[in-house]
Amino acid sequence: MEQNQEQQPVFGIEKLYVKDLSVEVPNAPEIYLEREAPQVEIQLNTAGRGVGEGVFEVVLTVTVTAKLAEKTVFLVEVGQAGIFRIMNVPEEQVEPLIAVACPNILFPYARETVSDAVTRAGFSPIVLQPVNFEAMYMSRMQEQQAPAETLQ
Hints:
Blueprint: H1 2-6, E1 10-24, E2 39-52, E3 55-68, E4 71-87, H2 91-120, H3 133-151
Antiparallel strand pairs: 1-4, 2-3, 3-4
Helix pairs in contact: 2-3
């Protein structure tokens, strides 16, 4: 009975933290006199790596760039990280957990950090819309398979 419990799949959060936070307002103070709404671009990136037996660090990096014409209004980059315990899970399920489940957990924390950083920089908060990490993962998998298919 005990051995059966040891083989139960484990997926748990060990720690959530801000690994990197950068705020730039290169054209201050003049940029605060602008009345026009800036164009906002958002980029997301995820990365995961093993840090021990069944322990992984996953970092969700969110970069928000606001521009008026060619002038950068502000640039905020947040590296929201987590340490996750993933054990007794079939090998083919580990990557989807790291690429989909972990970023889904990290995203609300990253969204709050981005909003707070933008507000502290003196601008209206940016509210990041929900992200479908599963669709991003599937798209990345298809892109990786496409070049392999053209080589055959």
